[in-house]
Design the sequence.
């Protein structure tokens, strides 16, 4: 008889779900400064392997380095032995295998036999069943997934949406799977905030900048709206807003006070089904939480201290600065790599409208910071590496053309063009300064960069 169905939270996006017999851990990230060294868990992660304990399997939602950290996984294996790893499948697109996470795991030395995946997304793990659902938009840039974990006899479940971007059709698919399997979905976990790069990399970072402040509130409201829409679409008794607790390091730590953070207490105040679990703190008995109101309310404290014990990671240089420490500023080399990278990326371009993409390489952090905090860059044309034109041949009026300008450290750009550094890590790690005219999001441009390299 099942008398134990619980959930533990370990900070950032790492949780465990367990029964009497089975335990699965999701997205362990503790040992590596993510996004080329920009940020780390904002908590004491020393001895995390022992604190988390043993498990039967690991689920990794997607390739982003605050979710898939090979170093953390190998350190975990060293203590407890190799485990099954569940990841999502993606159907091939135009003959291309889009399972970037699988490829990265294999390249990192995680054996292919550890990767358990099928197109149906269904797996069995002792007394638990797993349904892994990809966020498949039929794009080369698809990476995200979510998971439903349920007991195969009592039919109680937990849905972990993680960073799954809000899409009502996709979320209805989660609810459809819950209904098809006749599940009582006790808890749904969803990211209530973001550590991404908008809007603080898109505007002059100044407390008095009205455009920035307005955009910060737009982003916060988008987070809140996304969170509540997710729970309106997927039924559950318990809501867990999570994926908080990361801080910037190095020169980019000056961005910290301009990030669109949301306090978890503000979510609890508006969501009567939401709970708070302290990282590495008390686990919640999910079966008891839906029967005992007093017990449930014990996870809704009146005061929440989000100033956790600090990470002792010492920053020296970003990863690309270490990798290319002897690399000098050489626009000629960068322009050659630019042209070769452009030719490759254009074959996978999904940009629909007239657009001009301009790439600039900055030689040092002084120029970078002047642009970030003073919006000042003298003679910017001398830093221009090249332009990419999209759908401009038959354009009669330049007024209809949008423009994106990207400014980036020359070593980071060399790494991106050479394929050693991924553009997406530079994007989410705030290594890029972006200026858009007009300031309108263009998914095609962002996705184009994912393939803007020579290999």
Sequence:
């Amino acid at each position: 008889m099942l008398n134990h169905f619980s959930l533990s939270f370990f900070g950032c996006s790492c949780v465990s779900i367990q029964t009497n017999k089975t335990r699965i851990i999701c997205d362990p990230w503790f040992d590596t400064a993510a996004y080329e060294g920009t940020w780390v868990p904002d908590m004491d992660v020393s001895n995390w392997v022992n604190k988390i304990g043993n498990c039967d399997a690991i689920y990794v939602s997607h390739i982003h380095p605050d979710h898939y950290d090979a170093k953390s996984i190998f350190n975990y294996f060293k203590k407890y032995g190799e485990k099954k790893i569940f990841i999502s499948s993606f159907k091939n697109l135009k003959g291309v295998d889009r399972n970037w996470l699988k490829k990265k795991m294999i390249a990192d030395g995680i054996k292919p036999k550890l990767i358990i995946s099928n197109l149906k997304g269904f797996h069995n793990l002792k007394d638990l069943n797993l349904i892994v659902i990809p966020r498949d938009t039929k794009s080369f840039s698809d990476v995200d997934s979510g998971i439903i974990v349920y007991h195969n006899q009592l039919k109680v479940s937990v849905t972990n949406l993680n960073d799954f971007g809000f899409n009502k059709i996709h979320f209805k698919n989660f609810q459809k799977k819950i209904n098809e399997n006749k599940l009582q979905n006790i808890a749904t976990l969803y990211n209530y905030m973001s550590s991404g790069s908008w809007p603080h990399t898109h505007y002059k970072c100044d407390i008095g900048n009205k455009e920035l402040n307005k955009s910060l509130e737009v982003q916060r409201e988008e987070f809140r709206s996304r969170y509540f829409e997710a729970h309106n679409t997927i039924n559950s008794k318990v809501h867990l807003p999570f994926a908080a607790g990361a801080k910037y390091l190095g020169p980019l730590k000056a961005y910290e006070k301009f990030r669109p953070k949301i306090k978890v207490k503000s979510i609890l105040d508006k969501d009567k089904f939401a709970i708070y679990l302290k990282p590495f703190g008390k686990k919640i008995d999910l079966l008891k939480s839906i029967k005992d109101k007093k017990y449930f309310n014990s996870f809704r404290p009146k005061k929440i201290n989000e100033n956790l014990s600090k990470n002792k990671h010492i920053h020296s240089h970003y990863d690309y600065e270490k990798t290319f420490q002897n690399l000098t500023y050489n626009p000629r080399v960068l322009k050659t790599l630019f042209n070769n990278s452009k030719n490759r990326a254009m074959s996978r371009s999904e940009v629909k409208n007239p657009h001009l993409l301009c790439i600039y390489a900055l030689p040092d952090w002084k120029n970078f910071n002047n642009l970030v905090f003073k919006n000042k860059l003298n003679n910017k044309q001398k830093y221009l590496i090249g332009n990419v034109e999209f759908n401009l041949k038959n354009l009669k009026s330049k007024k209809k053309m949008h423009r994106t300008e990207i400014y980036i450290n020359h070593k980071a750009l060399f790494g991106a063009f050479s394929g050693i550094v991924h553009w997406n890590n530079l994007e989410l790690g705030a290594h890029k300064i972006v200026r858009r005219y007009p300031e309108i999001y263009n998914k095609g441009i962002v996705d184009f960069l994912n393939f803007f390299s020579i290999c």
